[in-house]
Amino acid sequence: MRWLSTGKRFGFALFAAVLVAYLIGNPSIPSNRSYADTITEGSIPVLNVKDYGAVGNGVNDDTSAIQQAINDALTIKGTVFLPSGDYKVTSQLTVAGSGFITILGAGGSTMQSNINATLTTGNVFEVTSAYLVKFKDIAINNYGSTGRIISFTSGESHSIENVRMTNTAGNSSDMVYYIGAFTQILNSGFVNNEPSAYAVHVKSLTSQLNINTNIFDNGFGGTGKGILVDAATGTRPEGLKISRNNFILTGAEQITLKTILHVDISSNMLDQSSGSSIKLDPEGLALNGVFIDDNYISTAQNQQGGTAILAPLKNEGVTNTVISNNMIAYSGYGIVLNANASNVNISNNVINDIYHTGIRSDKSRSTTIKGNMFNAAAASLSIADGTTGGPFIIKDNQLTGTNTITKTTISKFYMGDNPGL
């Protein structure tokens, strides 16, 4: 192997000299940190919180040590590493500046690094950084009476990956809140123990773009609610994907949409809700472009009164909605639409064990109900056009039970072959 050329050796020596000068001029960064004692070209420096005085025994207050490690990591775009242990936190940890840092635990398949917070004000982590703050391989528990676990109130391209979060009954704060764009929440777990709280709150503000975010492969459990999507007046999020998540909640709502432009809800297990598994509840700008595909949906905790997919009657609209290829079972109602719903396609769903009605539409507009299979439902269809609803295309459905089609205007209905009707 050839040695470096004279020019390259000179460049390397110059780089080393600059590095030494930098470290001398930044005495707040411990010189004995356990990882990345020297910063080499192409590497990410790792700052160990124990080098800042954190103990991780569940007794000592590690708040200030963790905060100092975060502050230093922000100056060098580094990683804050929490080795195995239980870290006591008693006040808010703030991630500010430009960002580009990772909060990393000794996780993996099992969580070994735990932050245990007891807050009376603020949030466990308040992220105001502009870009790329990541939480990974760590458990964060908030046992306090208030505060979010992670609050992204600025920036974009932040992420949560393989993080387990737990809140406590009586804390009505969202567990995770974000307003930025290109946010990723992946492979994480939410144990929501407060019935009024949401595990994830997605919000759009007039001053902050919220677009193209993903919530994939997470687990939601506990007595609380799942995901809320809403916005400040005059705006809405765009391009949200909620996929391959497992909701085992006894809370009243698992996914609630107030306003959005294009959302994909696909390949999720939504089980054991006590109210509405998916609530299309418009507020502000309409819900536009809702795709609900390939999910298992059940309100088995309230098999008489629960509704798998509910669009309550509101002044704002629910438009351009596709509900297809889902298994809907063990619910009071399967799908309920009202007069504010338009351009709806309900196709190729299997709807089983419904206490009341599989699909109920009261004056929805431009609605297609095609190729659905019903089994063990007291009624498969209850459809009424009223004076403002329709037109309806109803064909190729396999029906069971007592069905009601109320036609104020016969010309608004195209009825194909529907065995059982």
TrEMBL record:
The keyword Membrane does not apply. GO terms for molecular function: hydrolase activity. Gene3D superfamilies: Single-stranded right-handed beta-helix, Pectin lyase-like. Residues 263-402 form the Right handed beta helix domain. Keywords: Hydrolase. InterPro entries: Beta_helix (IPR039448), Pectin_lyas_fold (IPR012334), Pectin_lyase_fold/virulence (IPR011050), RHGA/B-epi-like_pectate_lyase (IPR024535). Residues 47-230 form the Rhamnogalacturonase A/B/Epimerase-like pectate lyase domain. It comes from the Bacteria. Transmembrane segments: none annotated. This is Glycosyl hydrolase family 28-related protein. It comes from Paenibacillus mendelii.
